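Changelog-adjacent note: as of this version, every example in the card shows the full chain rather than a window. The one below runs 674 residues end to end.
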Amino acid sequence: MDKNISKLAADNIRILSAAMVEKAKSGHPGGAMGGADFMHVLFSEYLNYDPADRTWFNRDRFFLDPGHMSPMLYAGLALTGTYSMDDCANFRQWGSPTPGHPEVDFPRGVENTSGPLGQGHVMAVGAAIAERFLVARFGEWMAHKTYTFISDGGIQEEISQGAGRIAGHLGLSNLVMFYDSNDIQLSTVCDDVTIEDTAKKYEAWGWATITINGNDHDQIRKALDAANAETEKPFLIIGKTIMGKGAVTDAGNSFEKMVSTHGQPLSAAGASFADTIKNLGGDAESPFQIFAEVAELYAEAHKTKAAYVADKKAEEAEWAKANPELAAKLAQFITGETNVDYAAIEQKAGAATRAASATVLGTLAEQVENMIVMSADLANSDKTDGFLKKTTVFKKGDFSGAFLQIGVAELTMGAIANGMALHGGVVAACGTFFVFSDYMKPAARMAALMQLPVKYVWTHDAFRVGEDGPTHQPIEQEAQIRLLEKLKNHRGDNGMLVLRPADVNEGTVAWKMAMENTKTPTALILSRQNIANLPGSSYDMALQAEKGAYIVEKDADTPDVVLLASGSEVATLVDGAKLLREQKGLKVNVVSVISEGLFRNQDAAYQAMVLPAETPRFGMTAGLPVTLEGLVGANGKVWGLDHFGYSAPYTVLDKEFGFTGENVFNQVSEMLGK
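Full-length structure tokens:
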């Protein structure tokens, strides 16, 4: 490739990046300008994609970690034709496809939503694992690379340790990471915050590394050639780049390597926007242009990519002809179609809902061949081992199994699950204790934003963890997670489906709901302790949970009181209802609310039937009262916890905290004045 035209292409990215931020009057131009060389070389010469269909399944993936470098991504993709100059000129504006931080948009080449530093490259690890999983089942013909771009901030975020350890442990040689090491942070220089040797750190985790001048195209090519030749290890390219490369002042002096260009337009940072654009070969009066030579370069690159894609599709067609059953299975994996006989699953009455989950997972391991389950060193406690017992764990060079022992790294696990879901072709599920959803919240929020169907298995759902004490007893977690049911995604759906089943049969139905929910993430909140089956409990009865709430026991259309809860508290309400009938002669309806968000989506008539408007309501929750206050309303009462737990057997805590049938009887009697 002509070196001058290659440099011109990188400068074109710099010009567009600087112009986007300048016009928007906000953004991060400096890093985008420094990373432009790698972006250009990767996209034009190494990244395999179908120019006519960016959703082609066997494409290479590119995951951006520092979302603040969105100008670089949009500018680089603009050279490939997926963004117009108008799109770039409307950076960060209402309705524009170029938001301040990239939001997943496969047709335009944006593989992930990025912004919270660290998560983007961990999603890349998840995608690389998904690729190895699929190759193990269908063959090397469908092998492809996962590239990711990380900055100093992402390297520093603690989540990078989990990604580095896991990728190295699994020997993900299909993963190539470019570290844009420009030594500048948003408010200071990197020397003020770290002295670590990044290369040695990653080598200790089992990565291959190389350090280059990240603005030298020949060195970038040599590094990418070495990365693509690597067969045993993930590959880290440490590119020493120049923050704000090409920036100058009004006097024509260099304004490179300045902290100020990290987070504000060049003109606000102290540089001259017009002189910088001129210095880079552009027109400051009309900066939103793709140079003719650059357009020609990318047109030629697309011819090469189209020929590559044609060969790969021909290879796939030959494979499909020779392996029709495997081809049909691959198509099913990609569409996400599943066919599970949930009605045939036999549950042990009175078991914990985590045990019910294990039973279902055993069936899923046999009937959903593209499911991957992870656990944060808790498989035998969160009972994801129900799945593990039917498969094997991933190991370096062996992805024939379907279970990832992630180690103690909940946030890493959540982001890896997101990457798997973004890659496609697999169903991602991950498990840990519910209290540690605190560690996972950033990734769970991103899953909700990206509308990814990740499944969370969160067990030990309440203070009934008992002797482990307040550090391990969830109190406020359910209220926090259920907020994502109230938060709509950009499609208008509930951000997350949150399910807390009341017995083992609801546990089966909860998994059915989770697997059939392909539009959003799903949280399964499960009990550690055994729970008595609800009256008349069966799979068919529990199917009513698919409406979010249903009447478990019904005395009348307009009863004296409605008792409502989710999870193990429903059984406690059943005990209390019995006493209220026997000792007070009250007509009592008991309602199981597995998902308030789903219940609120039902029509008004159904909601009124389950919760009659004028009937007093009593709610019970093992978490904060606010969890149920919206359903109970002003003329009712919620019995919950407004304090941390204590270390004691859960049966003692039930009594001390008032989670007994007797206390239900007392509280309702007092509420009704009976």
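Structural remarks: The chain is about 45% helix and 10% strand.
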